[in-house]
Design goal:
This protein has eleven helices and no strands. The chain starts with 9 loop residues before the first helix and ends in a 21-residue tail after the last helix. It is mainly alpha-helical. The chain is globular, with a radius of gyration of 19 Å.
């Protein structure tokens, strides 16, 4: 079994296995959804952070102080953006629910059926948005921020433009609200999506073998951050299914991109220029060199 292999990504496997017990314990303790998600986020950061220090995939990717300052700043900015977006989107979801003459039948589905469907629906919307942001134009300038660092580790998952954060939150929550999933199914889906978002950025040692075709992994997501646009596939994060369906799946066992990030040029801010990264989508764009332009694997 994969879990017995010495090169298995044990931190990720353990986090996946313990997700349901954690959710059950939080429910038994009477925690609110916000507390459940927040505590899970902190535990996820601590867990993967410890393994990044102990057994990193690439020692050179260990975050320096400048990296942590940048990531912490984006965490603060994006926490505010995420909170405001959550209030607005939550209010909209309640209004949509009130307009429905009868509750959605999905709300009464058992969790074993509702949660996978909720994850698939949220992932499909996130996949479509993510792929669209990789095309040339203003969307790419918004999405360039998480691709700017030249390394991947668990905390630089926070280095994302707040506009991108709001767009992604809306994309994930919209299908869940429109389809009328129950609160417990939504919470479990969000816990899984949150875990996967950080696990796929973690600089932890090990491989996932055949599981790379079932769940999103750091092995897959490193290809997405390749400096070579033709390699930067795998637009889905939590599950690789939609990449497999739409022809953007990239998995080469035992291989990985030579480098991640974006090669600097005159228009792209430095990886630690926080103000520059935040202002980047608001500035008049300069023409990107051909090697820097995002590409879509299915474009002619």
């Amino acid at each position: 079994m994969l879990s017995h292999r010495p090169d298995a990504d044990l931190p990720h496997l353990f986090a996946l296995v313990t997700l349901l017990p954690y959710a059950a314990a939080a429910h038994a303790a009477g925690w609110s959804d916000t507390v459940t998600l927040t505590v899970h986020l902190l535990l996820t950061l601590l867990w993967f952070g410890l393994f990044e220090r102990w057994r990193p995939h690439r020692p050179a990717w260990r975050p320096a102080r400048a990296d942590l300052r940048r990531d912490a700043t984006f965490l603060g900015v994006n926490a505010l953006a995420d909170g405001l977006a959550g209030v607005a989107l939550g209010s909209l979801a309640l209004q949509l629910a009130a307009l429905q003459p009868v509750p959605s039948p999905i709300a009464s589905w058992p969790l074993w059926a509702a949660v996978p469907l909720a994850v698939l629906a949220a992932e499909l919307a996130a996949y479509a948005l993510h792929r669209a942001l990789h095309r040339e134009g203003w969307g790419w300038r918004v999405h360039l921020v998480p691709h700017r660092p030249g390394a991947l580790h668990v905390t630089n998952n926070f280095t994302t433009h707040p506009i991108n954060v709001v767009m992604l939150k809306a994309a994930k929550l919209a299908p869940l609200a429109l389809l009328g999933f129950g609160a417990d199914a939504v919470l479990l889906a969000l816990l899984f999506l949150q875990l996967q978002s950080f696990a796929t950025h973690a600089n932890t040692r090990g491989r996932m073998g055949w599981l790379n075709r079932v769940v999103g992994t750091a092995e897959l997501h490193r290809w997405h951050h390749s400096t070579r646009p033709e390699e930067a596939m795998n637009f889905a994060t939590a599950l690789p299914l939609w990449d497999q369906v739409f022809g953007t799946y990239r998995y080469l066992p035992g291989q990985e991109p030579q480098a991640v990030g974006i090669s600097p040029h005159g228009d792209v801010p430095d990886a630690h220029d926080i103000r520059g990264l935040l202002r980047f989508p608001l500035r008049r764009p300069a023409a990107l060199p051909p090697a820097q332009r995002p590409v879509d694997a299915t474009d002619p």
